[in-house]
Amino acid sequence: MRAVLVGPPGAGKGTQAQILASELSIPKVSTGDIFRANVSGGTELGKQAKAFMDRGDLVPDEVTNAMVRDRLAEKDAQNGFLLDGFPRNVAQAETLNKMLQEMGRSLDVVLELKVDEEEVVRRLSGRRTCRSCGHVQHVVYNPPATEGVCDSCGGELFQRDDDREETIRHRLDVYREQTAPLVSFYEKEGILVAITATGTVEEVTERALAALKGKD
Ligand code: AP5
Ligand code: ZN
Q: What ipTM did this prediction achieve?
């Protein structure tokens, strides 16, 4: 299956992508995770991306598209993938269509996670991310067994720089202006399915799996 997850920051894309990719036996390709790994590794790509990420702005398309092109050319992505955080605007969506066309492929489905803005702010302001493995938790909704310690690997949990309230508000503006138009873009292509992304993580996963069923 070749699938894309779309939804506002904090909709639970990363949380669901990890579970769905494992359920569907396809790799999860998260542009946010790849950028963050490059920032903490101090690579050239990380240096190019950091200032944009800290402000909550999109990293320029040419940088992002080249990175995704390389990732989708890897062997494990040949039989399917779940994209999380890409595409992020209509230009990236058009580039993705072209990339796939060149490989003789196309997208099967785009899953929209719908959640209102106040819930997004609650989720992001309480989010804690593992420095070692990228696992995501929440101080109230998914609290770690030991404060500050990742349930998955025992690494240190920290608060992302872009999870401060004013940056969250800016990321929501960027979503509304640049990313939300993807919903009608993919609706026109006839491959959009939408689910409500409130409720427990397990409830959202169930809805997502039901919506994705038979789409490949
Ligand atoms: P990215 O990492 O993609 O950030 P985002 O889209 O803002 O999404 P988030 O990671 O904030 O949220 P999420 O939907 O994954 O939610 P999560 O599962 O963590 O991008 C970061 C930056 O990188 C961008 O600002 C940009 O600069 C750059 N970038 C990335 N891709 C780019 C692109 N294509 N082009 C240009 N630039 C790009 O959940 C959030 C919290 O809620 C967690 O604490 C979680 O535990 C909790 N939670 C999850 N589900 C539930 C639930 N059902 N109930 C209660 N709590 C829940
Ligand atoms: Zn961890």
A: 0.96
